Amino acid sequence: MGVSDTQIAFWTSLIMLPWTLKPLWGPFLEMYKTKKFFVYMTQVFTGVLFGLVGLTLQLDHFFSFSIAVLTIIAISGATHDTAADGVYLNELNAKLQAKYVGWQGAFYNIAKVFSGGALVYLAGQLEGEIGIRNAWMIVMFVYGAIMLILGLYNMRVLPSSQSVVQTSSLKEGFHTLKDVIITFFQKKNIWYSLCFIVLYRFAEGQAIKIIPLFFKASRADGGLGLSTSEIGLLYGVFGSIAFVLGSIVAGYYVAKRGLTRKTLLILCAVFNLPFAAYAFLAIAMPTNLYTIGAAVVTEYFGYGFGFVGLILFMMQNIAPGPYKMAHYAFGSGLMNLGFMIPSMISGLLSDYLGYKEFFIWVLIATIPAFVVTWLVPLQKPEEEILATE
Fold first, then answer.
1. Cα gap 19→85, rounded to integer Å
2. Which of 47, 242, 254, 317 could pair with 148 in a Cys bridge, judged by C-beta atoms 3.0 to 4.6 Å apart?
3. Are 189 and 313 in contact (CB under 8 A)?
4. How many CB atoms lie within 10 A of CB 38?
5. What pTM does this model have?
6. 114 Cβ contact list (under 8 Å, min separation 6)
7. Whole-number Å distance between alpha carbons of 156 and 140
8. Which residues contact 290 (CB under 8 A, 6 or more apart)?
9. Could you give the 3-state DSSP secondary structure of residue 111?
10. pLDDT for 245-298, tens place per residue?
11. SS3 (DSSP) at 117
């Protein structure tokens, strides 16, 4: 549609900022209605906004308008994240939280694969029949319909034992936010921990925005020249299966060995080294879809396997304390910032270097993750127990 890689990577990364800032307004959600209310209202609101995104695609300056609406969707989505976590923690006891946390993570990532796979495949099928703009307008309408249905469904069936009447004042909300921030930065080894959660995804942040653009770009421009449907197939079939397998294997692996230095280094390696598969594709330029699919499988398996290390680290080294949910949200927000910033510059780098040199650079960019993984102090189990008391 005539938009450069630099613009795509920069703006679609910048609008992720609300997921970094969400801890700042999280405490104020306690002051009005219930967490269930914010869950279904943000779903309905997001559904309407996706419909608007579809309509903007018919305008001359569609990119500016669509990014503006997607920014509002991002704020709504980040608010939904906080409220949904609140419902999860309020409605389930500790045993059930542990039982379903794996399912929660799996559905979160399966949703991303469904979005980048099945719906992209649908767009590709429609492009040849009704044109690119109309095809993606229909897909945005599908997104909107899904969110509206989820909102109406959760309005009726989502449990809510939380009282609607809140006693917190605005002053108390600011006081709580201040205490959350102060106690977060008073945690033991917090600066080492922040370096870890920011740099663990440094290479991924750069690669993730460019991979589908590399797949789509013509071979004359150094890309693989795949169709939209083929890209959807790669992510929706190859990627989803590999991710689920990686997540399951990682769960058993960490459950058996615990989060030790050696375990964390292995998780880091499996998370970062598969980016070599994309360097291979950029150099070899294969035409066989199964060869390209094997690279996607390698990367998604590594993503599913290695991401567990980051989540467990935040649960065991960032979250423990009196503000467990808020501090975990704070940690995940800063983690998102570490992903967002390299994503913003990735398009500029790929346009300047070319795809082959860019993916070689991504391999070099994995080095900081290994350094911080080797150096970060790990909290001992007895320290975690004391932190929660």
1. 13
2. 47
3. no
4. 20
5. 0.70
6. 236, 240
7. 25
8. none
9. helix
10. 887 788 778 777 877 888 889 999 999 988 999 999 999 999 888 899 999 899
11. coil
> Contact, 74 vs 16, CB < 8 A?
yes
* Alpha carbon of residue 310 to chain centroid: 12
Tokens 């190859």, residue located: 238
Contacts of 171 (CB under 8 A, 6+ apart): none
Helix, strand, or coil here: 166?
Answer: coil
24 CB-contact burial (10 Å; exposed 0-12 / middle 13-18 / buried 19+):
middle
- Crossing angle of helices 5-14/202-216, nearest 10°? 140
Residue 277: count of CB within 10 angstroms of its CB: 19
Q: C-alpha dihedral over 102, 107, 108, 114, to 10 degrees?
A: 150
Alpha carbons 133 and 124: distance in angstroms, whole number: 11
Contact status, residue 383 vs residue 188, Cβ threshold 8 Å: yes
Q: String of b and e for 121-157 (b: at least 16 CB within 10 Å)?
A: bbbbebbeeeeeeebbbbbbbbbbebbbebbeebeee
Q: Please state, in angstroms and rounded to a whole number, the distance separating the CA atoms of residues 16 and 128.
A: 31
pLDDT digits (tens, 9 = 90+) for 313-350: 887 788 777 777 677 778 888 888 888 888 888 888 99
Neighbours of 262 (CB within 10 A): 9
Q: What is the DSSP string of 29-58?
A: GGGSS-HHHHHHHHHHHHHHHHHHHHHHTT
Question: 139 is written with which tokens?
Answer: 């897909």
- Quote the tokens at residue 118: 């099945």
Q: What is the C-alpha separation between 79 and 203, in angstroms, rounded? A: 27
Separation between Cα atoms, residue 264 and residue 87, nearest integer Å: 30
Asked if 36 and 156 count as a contact pair (C-beta separation under 8 A), the reply is no
Nearest to 138 by CA among 121, 129, 126: 126
Distance from the first to the final alpha carbon of the chain? 56
Name residue, tokens 């942040």.
205
Can you tell me which residue has the tokens 């950029």?
A: 282
Q: Which of 344, 299, 11 is nearest to 206 (CA)?
A: 344
Question: Would you state the pLDDT for residue 130?
Answer: 92
Rounded Cα gap, residues 30 and 24, in angstroms:
13
